[in-house]
Amino acid sequence: MLGRADNVDNQSLRGFLRMVETNYPDELVRIREPVNPRFDMTALVFELERSGKNPVVLLESVAGYDMPVVTNVAANRRLLAACLGVDVRDLPTAFRERCQKYIPCELVAEAAWNEVVIEGNDVDLNKLPIPLQFSVDGAPYITAGQISARDPVSGVDTTGFHRLMLKGKNRLGVSLHSRRRMFEFHRRAEERGKSLPAVITIGTHPLHYMGSMVYAYPPNVRKFEIIGGLFGEPYRLARCGIEDLEVPAGAEIIIEGEILAGVREPEGPFGEFTGYASYRSTQNVFVAHRIRMCGDAMYHAVTSGMSKDHILVSCITREGEILNALRRNLPNVRNVHVPHTTCGAFVAFISMKKTADGEPQMAIMATLGTELYTKYVIVVDDDVDIFDLNDVMWAVATRVRAEKDIFFIPGAKAAILDPTSDPENFTVTKMGVDATRPAGRDFAERLVISDEQRARARSILEAAGVKL
Ligand SMILES: Cc1cc2nc3c(=O)[nH]c(=O)nc-3n(C[C@H](O)[C@H](O)[C@H](O)COP(=O)(O)O)c2cc1C
After folding, report:
1. Cα–Cα distance between 194 and 214 in angstroms, integer?
2. Distance from C-alpha of 357 to C-alpha of 147, rounded to nearest angstrom
3. If you measure from the C-alpha of residue 76 to the centroid of ligand 1, how many angstroms do you get, rounded to a whole number?
4. Rounded percentage of the chain residues whose pLDDT exceeds 70
5. I need a labelling partner for 8 at 20 to 30 A (CA). Which of 173, 214, 383, 431 fits?
6. Shared-domain flag, residues 110 and 249
7. Environment class of residue 217 by beta-carbon count within 10 Å: exposed (0-12), middle (13-18) or buried (19+)?
8. Is 186 touching ligand 1 by the criterion CB < 6 Å?
């Protein structure tokens, strides 16, 4: 199934699948029974998630198509940690450190996606097994499309996911609502009266997915160099046929084209990461000129909505970016957690070993100044497990005095897709919560059961036949 058995590129989606199949076989589910491209994939992934499972899912047979679909590639912290070779709890720190080691890319002559080339009138995006994910979606959406383009001013390229609505055989609606580099590159091209040459890459390694989400880095650095930092070796790219743009040589499918200047068309609705239908969009249009793909290409879809596949990488990248910002000034910050439950964006938990009052407030301001999407920040002492929602809520319940520990910042810039943001200017009221104990004076003593006592209890229970 993974093809090219002896020659799987470790930087490719296939390389990742091979690693999962070999080292974590229980985390790969193959569905051989034909599935319907309308809704089956989403329902399968959400059912797995409800039962606490987050395996990669390979749909070997999709009715009406002869290409397999892989999804839920990035839904599992254990597998993402394995991509970086670290323990799950060290993931934000390892990610933050690695993505600051920019490694120049390697340009290679051969690309996996050069085996099949479709151009001109033969281009027909309807032939790709693009699933329809939610009943509210305006059309099937390409959800794992990494769009690459060059800054028309500096020539430095970028890569990032942007939702792509299937509108016709060579036409896709695109929303650049996160307003980061791609939005700005398109704005600069349009200002010069030009469309923006761009390539959509489908089917890349999860480290590409992760690295593409980084946003706080110098403008002369290529995102592909950050992804190289995550791989710990130069990222292998190959030139395609549009403006000599370079894309990962091991990708499954690429679509060459342009984001049109001066054209806006209705795009959406789409089932977004917030768990709501999104009707907000920048309404751009991508026109495809050429498709290239592997002879035995796999189609990759991110399961959208509030699934882990859609959100987990955002959680980890935000955790890394916030940690980066906090550690500059507050070395006593221990860790950051952006829980999936809060759409992987809107709430951040920070744990710190507080040495003086006022430090949580500094951490809250730095976080809100770093992460546009985050609107509530809760700071706890380092005896609280920020990866355990129950523990964080216990700290809020027992260490917060509302009149002095909760404060508001009205009118702050927020995510366009946040349903609470003002439809006129996308602002919200942000909130900081200091759930730490007061410094320099006695506070109520926390009850603890020692590790030794816990271990003894476990062995007694096991002997009594209780499965823990
Ligand atoms: C699965 C997924 C889908 C995304 N879809 C969009 C989208 O449709 N539009 C958008 O502007 N950002 C989207 N994002 C966020 C961008 O990919 C992210 O902000 C990225 O860093 C932007 O890259 P850029 O700086 O090259 O624009 C998505 C992120 C993920 C993980």
Report:
1. 27
2. 45
3. 19
4. 99
5. 214
6. yes
7. middle
8. no
- For 304-325, the pLDDT digits (tens) are 999 999 999 999 999 998 998 9
What CATH number is given to the structural domain containing 403? 3.40.1670.10
Give the model's pLDDT for residue 7.
67
CA of 147 to the centre of ligand 1 (A): 9
Ligand 1 atom having least distance to the Cα of 184: 27
State the Cα torsion 130-133-138-144 to the nearest 10°: -50
384 in a structural domain: yes
In a domain, 23, yes or no: yes
Which ligand 1 atom sits nearest the alpha carbon of residue 185?
27
459 part of a folded domain: no
Q: Indicate whether 258 and 389 sit together in one domain.
A: no
Determine, yes or no, domain membership for 317. Answer: no
Task: Tell me what the mean pLDDT of segment 165-177 comes to.
Answer: 97
**Displacement of CA 417 from its chain's centroid (Å):** 15
Q: Is this structure's pTM higher than 0.90?
A: yes
Residues 208 and 341 in one domain: no
Residue 175 Cβ inside 6 Å of ligand 1? The answer reads yes
Question: For ligand 1, atom 12, which residue shows the shortest CA distance?
Answer: 178
Q: What is the mean pLDDT of residues 382-396?
A: 97
Closest C-alpha to ligand 1, atom 19: 178
